Each structure stands twice: as structure tokens, then as C-alpha cells.
Amino acid sequence: MKKFAGTVAAVAIFAPLLGTMAEAQAQTNVTIFGTVDGGVRYQTNANATGGSKLFMGSNGWNSSNKIDIAGTEDLGSGMEAHFLLENGFNLATGSFDNTTNTLFNRQSFVGLKGALGAIDLGRQYTISHDFILEYDPYGFNYTSLIPLTQASSGTRFSNDVKYTGMFGPFKLELENSFGENAGSFANGSAHGFGLQYYVGDLVLGGSFNRRNVLVGTTYRDEDYYLIGAAWKSGDWKISGGYMKDTLNMQTTALDTVTRNTFGGIAYSLSNNLKLTGGFYRTAVSTDKAMRKDMTIIGLDYYLSKRTKLYTEIDYNKYRKTVVSTLNAAGAPHQTAFTVGINHRF
Description:
globular
């Protein structure tokens, strides 16, 4: 904390000097924006004895709480330099939303963009996250409830180099995350590619990621596949996809295979009222509960373009009533109801 305070003080002291230097250089446009989300959730069968729970989502329910600092600079000839620094925080306590007190734990990257595409270096979202944003009926909202966050090949990669390019109706993404382990380029690394096709109101595509993750004291390959599609027409959107993640234990134990199937429909009832329904099935080969089915219906009421009230009801049903990673409470089913307010600035 002292180090962070010292950094803020240094910026304040040297800000006038930096402003003078900027006048002699090309202008960089810097924007501060983010999201503040607060809500209350009621859940049945929250523990093994069947007790209910009423609690506030300090990390946000409809979306995560975050502050972004973004900048762009026009380099001429169609070239652009840009950066993004993104911090996540807990609304209820004001603390960081991570246990390592990492300031920009969500994203921190710098890049260049031109006619042939963009290349970014740093901590950033994975390709699978970028694509799920299109296929998820909720547009990757309710991330703490819906299982797609955990299933999106790690959500973010550190030490990552990512390329994004548009070629007519095709979007291509390539990435490589360096493991930075001495003696092995593979240990702790990740790489992947994805391709999307846009035709009229339809978008469809898929991606592949391979991560090399530490399991116990040994690094194992983890392969992730995603396919999905989304169709928009007027006030309607229909979307869905399928994901398969395989952790290869290389004969020392059974492979862990996780499958996620999801889909849903969103409909704008009016200019400020939107109804969305989705279904998410998660099956894990090595989990004692075996499978979880989630049905969720959400309603958003927009007070303005930046502020909305939201509510949702969800029902989770488990294949087996047993305590496991998939079924933390060991309950046969759970019903929950959430209300909250979300503001983008």
C-alpha cells in the first residue's frame, strides 16, 4: 500500500512536467470509464442442511465492478497506438477483487492497430472470452452465476501477445501466452486461434486454446474447443454454443473432461425494457455430482443509456445430490432471486 501511495504522489508531483512535455508530442486521448454494480441475492439450499441465504454481491451480479483507463494516439497513415489498464474492485468493501492485491488484475496491455489488424501485449482476455461474448445470450453478464466464466479457457492470459484482424466478413484472432519458466518454453504457456464469420444478422465461429497448467507438481496440457452462433433481427437475438475442455493427465489418472452446452433468447419489449432467458448445462467427467443444469430468466429496465435496474431468477438442478466442486452445497436443486442496479460511467 505504501508503494502504491508513493506512486500516486510521484504522478501528482510530476504531472505539470508531463503536461509540458506532451505539448511537444502527438496528442494522446485518455479516457476513464467503468462499471459499478450492486445487488442483493436470495438463495435456497445454500448449505448442506438446506438453509437459505440472503447476501450482497460485493463483486457485482449483473456485471463486475471495474475502473478502466484507456488511451489512443493517432500515428498517421491509418496507424494507432493504444493501451488499457483495468482494475476490479469489490463494491461492498472497496477492496481489490483479488487476493494478491494486484492493481490491474483484469487487463493491462499496450498495442498497435493498422490496416492489417491489431497486436496487443500484456494481460488480456482470451480468444474464447472474446467469442463467447457474441454467443452467450446474456453477453457475458451474470458472470458470477453463469458457468461460462470458469469455462472460457482461463478468461485472461498474462504475458500474452494477441493478434486481431478483419478480412472481409472474417475475424481472425491468434495469441500466445509465455510461460516464462526457465528450462521449458511449454511449462505454464498457452496459445490459441479463433475464426468468426459475419453474414448479415448471423455470426458463427469457433476457437481452440491449449494451456499448459500446473497440476500438483507436474505440468499438464489442457485443450479447449468452442463453437457458437448468434442471430439478431430487430428486437430479437438467438444465440448458443458448445465448449469442451480436456485436462490430459497422461495415464497417471483419468482425464478431466468438462462440457458446457448453452443457448437462449433475448427480446427487447420496449426501448428501456429487455427480457432474456438462457439454459446452461455443465457436465464434468470426474465430478461426483456429474452434471448441473441452470435455467435463468432476467429482466433489465433502463433508466438511461448508462443506468439500469435488473432482476433475475435462476434454478439449478444437479444430477447427483453429493458435495463436490460442481455442487458445493450437496443440494438436489437451488432456486435464487437477485435484484440490483448497474451504472456505467
